[in-house]
Amino acid sequence: MEVLEAYGDYLLFGSEAAHPIAQAVGVANPHRTNKPSSLVPKLAAVRLFLRLSERVRKELLERSRFQLGLPVTAATDDLLPELGRARPLKQAEIRALRARSMERKGNCIR
After folding, report:
1. What is the CB neighbour count within 10 angstroms for residue 9?
2. pTM of the full predicted structure?
């Protein structure tokens, strides 16, 4: 999770990042910094990839265990359990969702 958290700093600041992992990667792999507006979709793509990878891993474990009768030698715990957890929205996020909702068409969030 620490590497995922550092990824945003790496994208935004590169070698100038405050996070030590992001800074080290930025020095080793220089790149153009990203705009803050592009950060959310990039992080979402990485998180989605990791969630899908976890789903495939679990499916392969179940197949090897139940369909093929093979002993399970891989870890059965989730790799990144934090990725599947929902968090409550902050008031600012709720306001932003309402402001960008379909209010113009009469469908507003209440």
Report:
1. 20
2. 0.57
